[in-house]
Amino acid sequence: MAVSLRSWVANEGGKHLVLMLWMGANTWLFLNTFLLYSTGQQYHYLYQMLGVGLCISRASASVLNLNCSLVLLPMCRSLLTFIRGVHMVSSRKTRRLLDKSKTFHVACGVAVCLFSVVHVSAHMVNMVNFSASYSDDFPALNLARYRGEDPKLIILTTIPGVTGVLLVLILLLIFISSSYCIRVSNYEIFWYTHNLFIVFYIILMVHMVGGALKYQTNTEAHPPGCLRPNQSSMEQHVDLDQLEDDDGRCREDAHFEPHRPQTWLWVSGPLCLYCVERFYRYTRSSAPVTIVAVIRHPCNVIELRMLKKNFKARPGQ
Q1: Residue 31 and residue 40: Cα distance in Å, rounded?
Q2: Is 309 left (phi over 0), alpha (psi -120 to 50) or beta?
Q3: I want to staple 30 with a disulfide (CB 3.0 to 4.6 A). Which of 59, 75, 173, 184 is the partner?
Q4: Residue 194: its pLDDT value, please?
């Protein structure tokens, strides 16, 4: 029993440790972002308008940013081969982990698909709330042009909406073509569809440019919930401490600014690394290769003997 446990830890322990760290990072990001948007003063009025859909959409977006950055790293094959071949850096356990790079890539891809469903569903609720909870008190918060505007019209006439639809379509194509039956029957469909990831990342970095969600910039001069002169239909909730401070009156109107796009901070590094790695592989693949022999062995095993100038096989190739 003890020998089996030690063998399992030696062979599989590292993989499960990385899996637990990855799941912990996803969980922490989701909960931390959810609490920020549900309790943060700068999002008080936006939360009143959109409700829990705001928190879920932003929390799932944080998880998507993380996994969209991580999903590229296991596909840097030349870099992984180099690390695997450096004995001073790569131990046996490290090489075992590097051999699981494709599994980690698939796990990140599944997470992107699942949280995209959550993100899109939450934003569909947000579009309905933008229309139904149109604010006359804070016009800057409104994404809808008027109360009762068709949510589908909001989606199709805003940058976040249009880019979101394109991202869903591309992700759906990648997901379907990644299925086992398509990879086995027609690998070219899987390969060329996966190359749409370049378009996916470009659109992803444009997705937040529209500034659909805004935060309050002057929470000190305008504490959320303070009494405003000439206030209209929106209900104000004033606590006792606020009433004791200048009778709970606002010193100025609330000011709002759209969020600056942050996705590029997450994905630009891994994306540039992957592009450099792909360019390196392209230059190496342009060298001619001479096929010396093709031998068919039993059990459908095919042996290829090739010659390539300045090439030396390394572990993992």
Answers
A1: 13
A2: beta
A3: 59
A4: 92
